[in-house]
From TrEMBL:
PANTHER family, alphabetized: CBS DOMAIN-CONTAINING PROTEIN, CBS DOMAIN-CONTAINING PROTEIN CBSX3, MITOCHONDRIAL
Keywords associated with the record: CBS domain
UniProt-listed PROSITE patterns: CBS
Annotated protein name in UniProt: CBS domain-containing protein
Length: 138
């Protein structure tokens, strides 16, 4: 298995990112519409946080998806900055896949924003990307 392959080879480059002023109901709609689980939060192209679909689900736990008005009321009670992970660990597009795998193995999250040398968002890498890379090796 190639160990020094840069994460830029497996990361998602066409990604959705949101600013801190995005409404939670809009963020939730992005999760549904694009069938994704993690969204970087940026200000002026710099990563300031990351939000997962689980972060959104937690605050609406117990409310039926059919009760859209109740969910919207709950989502309106929070700001994105209340539920996102602030200042997440990021990796550069040159970080090796091996190094990313080591980070995932030691942490309890499933995605990392990928930035360039100027700290601008370039993509996102997930544990699913890592598994798909591993499968392709065999």
């Amino acid at each position: 298995m190639k160990q020094r392959v840069p994460v830029s080879q497996i990361m998602a480059k066409a990604l959705i990112a949101v600013s801190t002023n995005k409404k939670l109901s809009e963020v939730n709609q992005l999760f549904i519409e694009y069938n994704i689980r993690h969204i970087p939060v940026v200000e002026a192209e710099t990563v300031v946080g990351i939000v997962s679909s689980n972060d959104i689900l937690k605050i609406g736990y117990g409310v039926s998806d059919l009760d859209k008005d109740a969910l919207d009321a709950i989502y309106d009670a929070y700001k994105l900055t209340d539920v996102m992970t602030k200042n997440p660990i990021v990796v550069t597009d040159e970080t090796s896949i091996k190094d990313v795998a080591e980070i995932f193995s030691k942490q309890q999250f499933h995605s990392l924003p990928v930035v360039n040398k100027d700290n601008e968002l370039q993509g996102i890498v997930t544990t699913t990307d890592m598994i798909n890379y591993l499968i392709a090796q065999y």
